[in-house]
DNA sequence: GACCCGTGGGG
DNA sequence: TCCCCAAGGGT
């Protein structure tokens, strides 16, 4: 691992921020100003989610709920509708809990340090540092996937970024480098660098503004970084989706309030071991495939009569269009249309 | 520390 | 088709 001199650190800050001022993504909507609410919403949406995906969601969200008070007082259903299709839905619920905590418990006074911000639900080590540096000027590194990727290459850090313990190694390595007068811009510049020249695949380090600081590129070992162990493959599961119609309504089922797609409505799903377990009128020839991070669902639509369970309800199109439905349920509805 | 939690895009 | 990736956090 490389250790930079004070002079190198100063040169790096200047080079990085000069590039950021010229070429950074200044027009991103969450960079129009540094209001903590705007930054918080953007940071939560951007967790494990690409910028292009977030943009339309962010615009709608800020338009409908422009202040932390609006979010705190909104019905949860409205928040989930604004989040529909974005995934990781506990983010939306935690975001509203955070807003309610700030409004109700802190009387609208924001926590201003990374340590205090981390008390908010859904706000962890990265997000707290991002808000503290961008909105409140705290000199603290925001260690996200971009920071891992960028600094593992610049400094040739061999720690496995899939390992929780590596976070401290990166934090300690980056902390002395963060620009003291512009910590928020420094952290955002690293993110812009990670999404332009220093990408995960096919990086363009030859033309990177910080090429001369890139030890891995200099030593022609950039492909080794970042060091990251593999994830496990999704588990395959087969399901029967019950299609039951009554007066132009369809039977839906509310999922348990914990676990995958917690509290969301889908067709009643019954796990089966093989296609031979299907009872009723099978509609589709090929299963509908939906892949989550850790699971791969293969779903068969099956028409059948059922006894209504307490967590089930017949819903009209008007009913379910008002609800926030997970993407897998939208897929099932679309597939069902083909048979009607 | 290991596992869970969505979705869409790209090679 | 399959695999990896994308501004992580909660349990």
TrEMBL record:
NCBIfam families found in the cross-reference section: mutY (TIGR01084)
EC number of this enzyme: 3.2.2.31
Gene3D superfamilies: Helix-hairpin-Helix base-excision DNA repair enzymes (C-terminal), Hypothetical protein, domain 2, Nucleoside Triphosphate Pyrophosphohydrolase
InterPro entries associated with the record: A/G_AdeGlyc_MutY, DNA_glycosylase, HhH-GPD_domain, HhH_base_excis_C, MIG/MutY, MutY_C, NUDIX_hydrolase-like_dom_sf
Domain HhH-GPD: 45-196
Keyword field contains Nucleotide-binding: no
PANTHER family reported in the protein's UniProt record: ADENINE DNA GLYCOSYLASE
Pfam family, one: NUDIX_4
Cofactor note: Binds 1 [4Fe-4S] cluster.
This protein's UniProt keywords: 4Fe-4S, DNA damage, DNA repair, Glycosidase, Hydrolase, Iron, Iron-sulfur, Metal-binding
CDD domains for the chain: ENDO3c, NUDIX_DNA_Glycosylase_C-MutY
Enzymatic class: hydrolase
Name of this protein: Adenine DNA glycosylase
DNA repair is among the record's keywords: yes
Molecular function terms, GO-annotated: purine-specific mismatch base pair DNA N-glycosylase activity
Known function: Adenine glycosylase active on G-A mispairs.
Catalytic function, reaction form: Hydrolyzes free adenine bases from 7,8-dihydro-8-oxoguanine:adenine mismatched double-stranded DNA, leaving an apurinic site
